Backbone:
């Protein structure tokens, strides 16, 4: 079955740049999406179609894609950005939904 | 503004059937622009897609759950539902319903709006 691979954890100091990667064989052909999940809350979409930002999401959140890897970048990290982040993308057929294992972002 | 709300029993016995309903308010479930999906998250673990449905009844399921899952839609009530049979403790999770955006001309989709989730515990 298709898999998306994320690092389990990323740590940064406030004001620095956090980069969270997600790798998958179908990513050159499929858009990827990123969700932020804070404890006890439902996930929130922060990036769609690799690099688009939904209304209401701060400009410090950005996304990029290169080959089989997509990257979520958070510039000028704030304490409130501490959360779990999940990438998501369908498999190459578009019929199966897949989430990465999630990355816990810690703001030191 | 469209909202989704999960409802159903919070406790299910092993080997029985888990049944949840998602009520959509502030918009029509019969919109041709969207699918509707279920996602779950075991305590302390990651997200798992369960399946998605179109208002016409067309469905897609996670292959790992397909033999036990049925997702249905009731357009008259603006609801869609999840049934998962033969549950075990491994099915204990927070279950979310969500709206699915399909990217036109691409075999690609994502979840743009989520319900708050409901915890279902499988235990005798």
Residues:
């Amino acid at each position: 079955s298709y898999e998306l691979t994320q690092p389990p954890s990323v740590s940064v100091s406030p004001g620095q740049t956090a980069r969270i990667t997600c790798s998958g064989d179908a990513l050159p052909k499929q858009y990827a999406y990123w969700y932020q999940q804070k404890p006890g809350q439902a996930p929130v979409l922060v990036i769609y179609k690799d690099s688009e930002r939904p209304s209401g999401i701060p400009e410090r959140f950005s996304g990029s894609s290169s080959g089989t890897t997509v990257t979520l970048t958070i510039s000028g990290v704030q304490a409130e950005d501490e959360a779990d982040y999940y990438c998501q993308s369908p498999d190459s057929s578009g019929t199966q939904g897949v989430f990465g294992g999630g990355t816990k972002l810690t703001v030191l | 503004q469209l909202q989704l709300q999960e409802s159903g029993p919070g406790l299910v016995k092993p080997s029985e059937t888990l049944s949840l309903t998602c009520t959509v308010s502030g918009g029509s479930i019969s919109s041709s622009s969207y699918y509707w999906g279920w996602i779950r998250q075991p305590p302390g673990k990651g997200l798992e897609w369960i399946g998605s449905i179109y208002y016409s009844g067309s469905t897609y399921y996670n292959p790992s759950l397909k033999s036990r899952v049925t997702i249905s839609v009731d357009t008259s009530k603006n609801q869609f539902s999840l049934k998962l049979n033969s549950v075990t403790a491994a099915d204990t999770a927070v279950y979310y319903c969500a709206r699915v955006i399909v990217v036109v001309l691409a075999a690609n989709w994502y979840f743009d709006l989520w319900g708050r989730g409901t915890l279902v515990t499988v235990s005798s």
Observations:
- Chain A has a mean pLDDT of 96.
- The CA atoms of residues 13 and 108 of chain A lie 5 Å apart.
- The first strand of chain A starts at residue 9 and ends at 12.
